Amino acid sequence: MKKRILWLGLSFLLVATLVLISCGPAEEGQQAEEGQQAEEGQQVEEGQQEEEEEEEEEEEEEEATTPTDPVSFNDIIPFLPGPPSGWEADDAFGMTQSVQEWSWSVAIREYMNTATDESVGVFIYDSAYYYGFGWWLTWENAIEWESTEGYARSITFEGYPAWEVYASPDSYTLMVLVADRFLVMINAETEDSLNQFAGLIDYGAIAGLA
User: Fold this and answer.
1) Phi, psi of 174, rounded to the nearest 5 degrees
2) pLDDT at position 137, please?
3) Fewer C-beta within 10 Å: the chain N or C terminus?
4) What pLDDT sits at residue 37?
């Protein structure tokens, strides 16, 4: 009886061992194949997602580089500040310029301090997403620098990207990019005047013109 039980036990162990030997590699191979298929599927899915993202970026770039009608200079002029106390101002000037299918507009006003004869100029450009006109190229190619003659600094002004430039002895400039299309530029002879006029402009309202 004990021998029969021992024999049955050994037989079961042998059969189990043979099953494990015969099935183990197959199962491992199947698991490896399934893992490879899952990895390939994930790679395909990631590739499709990257393609979709690239297509979306291309569409956005195409929209941004499609000719757009600029805001009329007549609608920009009201955003030029009135002369503060102690200052006089010329009548505002506006114009639209075009190159092939692209157009952009600008509103300009000059101010004069009645006590010191200091002058300030305020310019508001609507690039209409055309990045080829002079001041936009200046913005795009600007670099930070500092020397005995002045400096150029990349800053944030009123929440918008901006450049502050000083050239000795009496040239101060602030350029503010609004809504990726409007370029507000102020030229002054003193830093105090630059800051004064920069604070008179409603940049959020200009962004609303887009």
Assistant:
1) -125, 130
2) 87
3) N
4) 61
3-state secondary structure of 38: helix
Distance CA 105, CA 126 (A): 5
Tell me: pLDDT of 3 over 90.
Answer: no
Decide which of 56 and 5 is more confident: 56
Is 186 within 8 Å of 119 (Cβ atoms)?
Answer: no
Q: Which residues contact 89 (CB under 8 A, 6 or more apart)?
A: 82, 83, 109, 110, 111, 112
**Residue-wise DSSP of 157-168:** ETTEEEEEEEET
pLDDT of residue 54: 66
Quote the pTM value: 0.69
Burial of 198 (0-12, 13-18, 19+ CB in 10 A): buried
Identity of residue 120: V
Peptide bond into 169 cis (omega under 30): yes
Residues 6+ positions from 202 with CB-CB distance below 8 Å: 79
The tally of CA atoms less than 13 A away on the side-chain side of residue 159 is 5
165: burial class by Cβ within 10 Å (0-12, 13-18, 19+)? middle
pLDDT at 77: 98
